[in-house]
Amino acid sequence: MMEEILKKVQDGQLSVAEAKDQLAAYENLGFAKVDHNRKVRQGFPEIIFGEGKTAAQIISIMDAIKSRGDDVLATRVAKEKAEEILKYQPDFIYNETANILYWKKDMQPNMGDTGYIAIVCAGTSDLRVAEEAAVTAEFLGSDVRRFYDVGVAGIHRLLDNVEAIRDATVSVVVAGMEGALPSVVGGLVSRPVIAVPTSIGYGANFQGLSALLAMLNSCASGVSVVNIDNGFGGAYNAVMIDRMARSAREED
Amino acid sequence: MMEEILKKVQDGQLSVAEAKDQLAAYENLGFAKVDHNRKVRQGFPEIIFGEGKTAAQIISIMDAIKSRGDDVLATRVAKEKAEEILKYQPDFIYNETANILYWKKDMQPNMGDTGYIAIVCAGTSDLRVAEEAAVTAEFLGSDVRRFYDVGVAGIHRLLDNVEAIRDATVSVVVAGMEGALPSVVGGLVSRPVIAVPTSIGYGANFQGLSALLAMLNSCASGVSVVNIDNGFGGAYNAVMIDRMARSAREED
Amino acid sequence: MMEEILKKVQDGQLSVAEAKDQLAAYENLGFAKVDHNRKVRQGFPEIIFGEGKTAAQIISIMDAIKSRGDDVLATRVAKEKAEEILKYQPDFIYNETANILYWKKDMQPNMGDTGYIAIVCAGTSDLRVAEEAAVTAEFLGSDVRRFYDVGVAGIHRLLDNVEAIRDATVSVVVAGMEGALPSVVGGLVSRPVIAVPTSIGYGANFQGLSALLAMLNSCASGVSVVNIDNGFGGAYNAVMIDRMARSAREED
Amino acid sequence: MMEEILKKVQDGQLSVAEAKDQLAAYENLGFAKVDHNRKVRQGFPEIIFGEGKTAAQIISIMDAIKSRGDDVLATRVAKEKAEEILKYQPDFIYNETANILYWKKDMQPNMGDTGYIAIVCAGTSDLRVAEEAAVTAEFLGSDVRRFYDVGVAGIHRLLDNVEAIRDATVSVVVAGMEGALPSVVGGLVSRPVIAVPTSIGYGANFQGLSALLAMLNSCASGVSVVNIDNGFGGAYNAVMIDRMARSAREED
Amino acid sequence: MMEEILKKVQDGQLSVAEAKDQLAAYENLGFAKVDHNRKVRQGFPEIIFGEGKTAAQIISIMDAIKSRGDDVLATRVAKEKAEEILKYQPDFIYNETANILYWKKDMQPNMGDTGYIAIVCAGTSDLRVAEEAAVTAEFLGSDVRRFYDVGVAGIHRLLDNVEAIRDATVSVVVAGMEGALPSVVGGLVSRPVIAVPTSIGYGANFQGLSALLAMLNSCASGVSVVNIDNGFGGAYNAVMIDRMARSAREED
Amino acid sequence: MMEEILKKVQDGQLSVAEAKDQLAAYENLGFAKVDHNRKVRQGFPEIIFGEGKTAAQIISIMDAIKSRGDDVLATRVAKEKAEEILKYQPDFIYNETANILYWKKDMQPNMGDTGYIAIVCAGTSDLRVAEEAAVTAEFLGSDVRRFYDVGVAGIHRLLDNVEAIRDATVSVVVAGMEGALPSVVGGLVSRPVIAVPTSIGYGANFQGLSALLAMLNSCASGVSVVNIDNGFGGAYNAVMIDRMARSAREED
Amino acid sequence: MMEEILKKVQDGQLSVAEAKDQLAAYENLGFAKVDHNRKVRQGFPEIIFGEGKTAAQIISIMDAIKSRGDDVLATRVAKEKAEEILKYQPDFIYNETANILYWKKDMQPNMGDTGYIAIVCAGTSDLRVAEEAAVTAEFLGSDVRRFYDVGVAGIHRLLDNVEAIRDATVSVVVAGMEGALPSVVGGLVSRPVIAVPTSIGYGANFQGLSALLAMLNSCASGVSVVNIDNGFGGAYNAVMIDRMARSAREED
Amino acid sequence: MMEEILKKVQDGQLSVAEAKDQLAAYENLGFAKVDHNRKVRQGFPEIIFGEGKTAAQIISIMDAIKSRGDDVLATRVAKEKAEEILKYQPDFIYNETANILYWKKDMQPNMGDTGYIAIVCAGTSDLRVAEEAAVTAEFLGSDVRRFYDVGVAGIHRLLDNVEAIRDATVSVVVAGMEGALPSVVGGLVSRPVIAVPTSIGYGANFQGLSALLAMLNSCASGVSVVNIDNGFGGAYNAVMIDRMARSAREED
Prior knowledge:
The structure is a homooctamer. The first copy, chain A, is α/β, with parallel strands linked by helices. Chain A has ten helices and nine strands. The first copy, chain A, folds into two domains: 21-103, no CATH class; 117-251, Rossmann fold. Helix content of chain A is 47%, strand content 15%. In chain A, the strands form two sheets. The first copy, chain A, has a five-stranded parallel sheet with strand order 6-5-7-8-9, sandwiched between helices. In chain A, strands 1-2-4-3 form a four-stranded mixed sheet, sandwiched between helices. In chain A, helix 5 links the parallel strand 5 and strand 6. In chain A, helix 5 crosses helix 10.
């Protein structure tokens, strides 16, 4: 492409000033196209981290994005803040469990026959993080199946669901306390497991440190870990993998 | 008992000096009888922590105890040190895996029909700690059944043994890395689980911290924890419980 | 049992569909019977962790359980929340010190001649955790004797009670700050000690870390540890042991 | 499948004993097939963690596997140990940088036109971990491209390679010290990044803690993390994803 | 100077009492002149740490300083507190983003042709700390250029500004989460980088520990670090350097 | 004193030059006299921290001090190093348990009727630290009584010695593992307790952290703490107090 | 004493029942006399830790003690709570800076010519802790001199006061942030220094950890440390020493 | 510059191929010139981190650099390794205290009248790190003055040197244990202080953590911090500042 520009200068088709502009643009494009490419190719909508932002700030950012016709999702929006926002933007959708607020042009599931993400969750206390993962993944265009309350202290509940979890293209496994669930799931499935430690617990859980360390030390091989309570990050990684996996499965 | 002594003084059966001695003895007995009682009632032999002691020191302590006719066990005796000791005391028995050296008048198993301790172990790397627990428990007079290499990443290996573990009076569960095994066992059995974290692992296991924190945060209710790599401590707690449990089971 | 089913199929007593159902049931029973067995054999009622649940949620869960005729206990229910619940369910009982709310068909003590759990507590600040342990243990059917305010800085207060603590089948020892009490008790008794560190203290106690580490490093042999502030867990372990111990003592 | 067995019993094709065996097999298969399936479907060979094992132990395990005709790889085998093993098994291959010893029937690369894993590495000190990842991934059947010494303090070295890294199906990014590289790579690519913190550094790196925490807190969205120095784990996750991705890309 | 005083005593020009006073003064001057010198030579105005002080306390301190004709700046003054203060002292200036309140006789920028400090900031969440640094530096008499929202996950945003950052006499680089930005900037510039970790993030960022450790372990050589969230300290160090640098540049 | 010098100048008794010298000396004396005074008034000999110094370095320092006729003590001198030194300086005395090497003109105990320091020690493993304290205290001129192996797990051993410990002017209490001993002693005595945590233990003792935190959180009021394994520091503090206390007791 | 009782029994002067009572009393006295002795000999009044107690609880405890004619002091009583208490007990005295509430029969200073405790304090933010120490020490009967705002960043302020600090019998040195002050003071004085770390600071001070570790690692020899923010504990240790020191100084 | 290239293409002075090369070079130059510029403008020679490299590796790297005529310095080269290297390269210079090996064309000091770096060091144990800083700074072309053994426990030693430290353009302050020295120096001087914590100490110094935290929390304003034991980093930062400062001072 640089060669073309230079040839046009040589041929007089471009003035020096024009060529300089185009080359500069090309240069910027070297990095700016990252964002553009990502949006075009992946269709990943914009994501806002809502914690520490006022309702007014969230409204103005989401409006700006929506007015461009783009989808938009805000994580960690507490109920009170969401209710304030919904007064002004009643067409936004709020998921109270997940603390997620979003707007999407059309929310159609993929056909479901090509693969799904398993969201596996140890206890009911971890639900906020699990739902943050689930809603994020659905918003980003993946199908999701929820396997909740299947913690290791009642291993049969997990085993009852093991076939369905095995069939998922990727699992997001959410657990607090001793964080043992990803190891057990990782030993039962043959696809990637994204482990999300939660801060659920008390005392020597030290705000999620116990679950985090346990997951990093998993004796199962296919487990990788994201930050404590980072349901969004778990889902984002899973959707990246699920997209590849679904294509692969379609051709099987 | 004090009253009796005083009465004898009043009756002239005891001189003041004799009474003083007996009362002093009684006083000391108030605390000294702890050790005595323990040995008499429980038959717990003496235990030596071998780490940081020379072969000569271990020999002299063990000889002294043995010469009283008492059983004696030394934990954390490395192979080289043990070999040096065995040259002088060939009738001592050394368990290389457990790093335990002991001498016992007669090592007869209990009849086995009245209960046993399950030593459950996640990986082959945890064997030293598991065997320290197993040999200690046997030395202290309990029957032991070993369930090794049943880590959570291959949960079916554990489930294949679940009935036998359930039948134990108490389980000592040894695990390093993510330390998930006690939670899974705790959810499957209805008897106490003593969890022993090990320092096995690397990186973010931080010398056993990951397993320790996981076990303290176990979502299963009947799990209590001892120090990292403390196989002896796990066994000691278990034997205390097993003794009570066996008596109970005998009468069932 | 599997054999019987198969024989009935062979004999035509069971259709293939019926056999499939029964075998599936049997399979599930492999794990589902855990819970069932536990309830039937042990009579352990349901336990709810009240922290982070609304009054409405607690009411609906407890009502559901109570309507089945089962006993139910909720830990960590703050006073305000409890008062709200008691308006709707005045027959629930609330223990304010322990922050425990429960309902039990009939709360009859065991005969008391067969053993009890000692709840030993260092300071008055640790009372909430100690009472959580005591009320839980009583609710689960054990007799309890309380030995409060016997911290190590006034060792004579502990020694005055040492005989009664020695006679307990198991001790739950609750302490914050330097967490020294379980070591001292462990050296005085010959039965298991369940140590419960509390977050009581300030500065370098780091929310209970000082007591937790001290207890894990106890120089007394028969001490195992549960999570910080986990009075319930301490009691649960103790009740498991006490049940076995009482049976054993009955036959003495 | 259970239905078929039962029908054969009904039809007299199977005796009760034969059916019991098959059903038991089926039952075990419920969990045992995990391992079997994994090997058959994924072709994942056996992996041995060599640290803490003697040369003799490694030889006997590897021989056993090799004699079944299976491929086998041992990580963390120090040079001296490897040389000892190679005397007995000169057909094993040892990669000194990666500290990996392996045997593989035939080591043919995939055609290379369908995708590859990028192994990205910050500094020359991280080479051991990066090569552990690279050799593992190749052994497990993926193509690998190495991008070494592209740390963030000389960002142009990374940018010079950005297109090739973008084209990878997944990146394994290895870094010690401040662990910044995965964030920068994660911002430049649109495929998953597996971050591997290393213990390289000194002082306040606390054996890899600095890199680990940095990676868990990555501001780039598609980054997940494995344990410190766990090059093998990074590769294992990447191969799982690469297999799906390659299938997907083949059909593009 | 001591010699002069002594001579005057010898000459009778000073009484013993007077000489004693002067020598004592001289002695005190040995240390007291530090503060005086600093103010005279550096023109560094007084700084107040506003956190934990009441509005009334801040008013009285600032008034006292202002009445001497000296400039004064208070950091960490929350909005409510500032509004209360401004009622009484409407001529104070409050910067809401920086949480800084100040009064300055005349706020004239240096001519700008002799150098400036670059304040570089990773994300919008770090703005408070970055602005604390920027406003402090301006108040202390340096020119400042702000480069905000140039975090490493979108490296092109940073690279677009690299020439202007290179031309700064010193950079203050503010970042939370993985704290990678100072390493990247340190690799691109040849002047000192003062790194300011922020507590922005959640989970395993542990209130800024992740960014702090990352910055201390920077693989770029010219990076030094101040306390978490210490925008003021970063600016203070930078102004010290900028003053020297500007003098140097003036003569180039 | 300054006044006298000035008067002599006025009187012509001192030249200006002489006075200047004396005042300068006085000035330096302002700080230098600290060391001098300390030696003169307290008779504290020089102390050398032997760890990390070669035998040759220790010899040359000790010789220099000894040649001035001053006493000298070196802590943390391992046995091999000491033997090397003793070849050259056979009149030095080496205490192998304490790892202390010293030379003292005359080592006479104080009369013993005026007070002593109690060195109280939990276990035999803590002996090195306890003896470092004991030998240091004796070397610095205090009488010492040793109370060893009186750990809290056998509380009667401590109680048997309680009167003698109470009579000490100050106690140095040395303990590793759970570090409970200072709290118990602090509750029994009415004089200061200097607590010395040791690194003795394993696993969750984290090189002495458990004992250190326990001692800092002591529920007994008169306990202060020095660094882990710092027997010397414990003794130094105790000797300071003992000197005052003995004077006080003499007059009782 | 025991002998006397026994003789009286022999002589018929005491009945068995009376002797039993007296011996029991004597026995209890073995530990109970601790408290009694302490009060009688030391005149240490009762101390209440006010944090976490209600106003009503504090009133009832203080009233009970006061009604016995004993002095009483409560630490960590917040202003609001104190005001509530003072409505009922207007003769209590509240020190707002120290958060201390007390009642004392007669608060007369000792004559001041026999010694005093120096309370040395780094910054104005540490005042609460310093005053807790100062008021406690005065309440316990020692004279106190305050040396505030003499932090190490303005070392001349400390040096101006060095003689007066040297003359103290013992120093309580209070500092947050880098906790350097005790080391500097310890190098200037020849009497014991009790170091009190405070939680004052932010970021990497980690709630007082930085000051605590610095003080434990002091390079000055005569420094011992109490818990973070424990001004009371610092004073208590100092008063114990001051009492001995004053007696000693009286006789000089 | 780009404009010039384009004009030459337009004028036919450059072929398209030549222009493309030059623009590519220019592009690369966008980042590559960093290194080049740095070397040309700053004269910073190459630095090698010697730890973990073999003697052979160090020889080959240093030879390569030296053969280009460039200066070269290797830090952290232990004595044995250095001696091995010096056999092959006797013209290299080894500083044993600093563990630094270097080669420099001509090592001429700057004239000394234009400024110098003060290397300030707390104790003799910190010498290795201090000398690493001093030798590095000299190698990079700055004058250095050493102020060693001026730790805060003998504050007069520091104060005796305060004027000379104040006159330095920048101070590198090296301290282990409590890390107090940078705060004291920072309060005495008005130029930047680079603080280097060392791992010197034991027990609760936790390999330098105590000094590191203390320095990050310095109450003096002009202090910034580098990694533990990073004498090289401290010097590098100081040289950057010293160069600017010397230029500035030359014109005063």
